[in-house]
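User: Fold this, then the next.

Assistant: Folding the first:
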Amino acid sequence: LRSAMMMAMVAGGAVALSGGAAMAQGKAGEAPAAKGAAPAARETIVSLELAGMDQILIDPKDAALRRALMMVPSRLAELPDEFPDGEEAKDLFTLLRELYARPARIIVQYRMPDQKVSAESPFGVGVLLSFGMADKPSADRAQAAVNALLEQAPMPEDPQPSKAAPSMLELETPGGLVRWGPRSSGSQWRYEVQLGSLNGTADAVFPAMTPVKSSFGEIQPYMVARGDLAPLTPLIGMLGGIAAGDPTVANALRSAQDA
C-alpha cells in the first residue's frame, strides 16, 4: 500500500522532529528558558499523539481498505448476539466501538517523589490516555460502558465526581488518584483516563500536530511521538546505590543512565 508506506515514512520524520524538540524543551509546549535562568525540569518520558482513522489511507487506491476498516464499529455492534454470553460483554464491545479510530493521545511523566508531590501521585508518576470524541453523547456512551464494566468488578469504594473536572469520576488508589470520563476541551469533547497528576494541563502537555515542512512541501503527520529518559536519571541513580553490591545490576543501570 503506497500511501500506508508513505505515512510510515512521515511518522518517522515526525518522531525525529519531535525527538529533536524534546532535547530543546523542558516539556511539550514549554517556552525556552530565559537567558541565565535554570533549565526547566524534564518530566515527560513518553508522549504520543495519533490522528484519527479519517486522516490516514487517503490515497484513492486504498479506498477499499479504508471502507473495510471503517466497517469495524458496525461489526463490533453485532458480535454480542453471536456469543452465548455475549450480553455480559456488550459493554466492552460498546466501549471498543466508541473509541475505535478516534484521535488518541498518551503521555507518561515521572518526577522523584518529594514534599511537593501531592497525594494524587505518591510515586511521582502521571499517565494520561485521551481520545478525541465526535461529540458529548459519544463520550457519555463510552463513560456508561466503562462504569458498567467497573460494576462487574469489586471496588474498594464508590468513585466520586472529580473536583478537577465535574464531568469525570475519580477514585483514590494506592498508586495514586485515578480519574476517568468525558472532558470538554474547547470545542471538542474527549474521553480520558488519568493516573496521578500531570505537570501542565491535559491539553497543554501536547504540542499542536502541525504540518511538517519538507523539500517537497508541507506534510500533515498522522503521528507525533517523543521520548526522553532524562526524567528517570534520579531514579536510576537511587537504584544504583541500592544495587551497588551486584556488579551485573549496577552495570545495567549505568548503561541505562548513559542512554
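Now the next one, as you asked:
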Amino acid sequence: ITSSIMHMKTPIILVIGGYVNFKRNVMNNYYLKARLYPTILTMIPLVVLYIYYLSPSVDTVLSPVWDLLPIFTGVAINVCLMFLLVLLNRFVSKAVFQKLFYQDDLKMPTTDYLMPDHPLLDNSSRKRYYQYIMIDFNVDMSKELKKLETETQKRTMITRIVGQIRTKLRGNKMLLQHNIEYGFFRNLVGGCLIALLTSIALLIISICEHNCSIKLTSIVMIVFYLLPIIFSKQIITFHGKNYASVLYEQYGSLDRRFDK
C-alpha cells in the first residue's frame, strides 16, 4: 500500500498542486475554465499510465532529485507539466479540429455572418452590421468586398474586421462567457484525442501484461473519450454559432450616439 501511495504522489500533486497554483496565479478566467479544466478532465489516462507503468522507473531514476529538491520537484515541475498539457490540448484542438471544421478562422460562423448572401444571416441584418462597421472602423464593407475577387480574399478581410469587433467588445461579460464555453469544448475535444491515444496504448500494454483491471479501465476510457471526438463537429459547430450570435448581438447593442 505504501509503495502504491508513493507511486501516486507525483500525479496527485500534478492535479491538485497544478490546479491550486494556476487558480491562484492565473487571473484570466478564460484560461482557467476554457484551457485548464479540459486538461484536468482529459489527463486521467496519462495519470493511470504514470501510476502503473512509468512511476517505478521514473521514481528510481529521479529519487535523488526528489530527496534533494522536494518542494521544487513536487510543485514547480508538476505545474510545468500541467502547463505543457494545456498547451498541447490547445494545439491539437486548433491544429486538428478548428482547422478541419473552420479552416482556422476563415469559415468560422463569425466570418459567415458578414459574408454577402450567406444564409446564416438575413441581408437586412447584415447591412445593419455593415453600417455599424462603417461608423466604428470607417470601412465600407459592401465596396471593399466587391473589390475582392475570391471568396478566400473576402473571408480574410472579414476575419480582420471580426478581430476589431472582438477588441471593441473586450470586457463584455456575456461574450466572455460564450467564448469560455466555446473554448472549453474545443479544447476538451482536443484533449480527448490525446486521452484516446493514451487509452489505446494502455489497452495494448494491459493485454500484453494480462492485467485485467487496467484492460477494463482502458476500454471504458476509450469509449468515454471517443464519444466527444465522434460528435466533435456537432459540438464545435453548435458552440461556434452560439458565440457568433452573441458576438453580433452584443456588437449591435453598443451605444453609438456619441460615436463619430
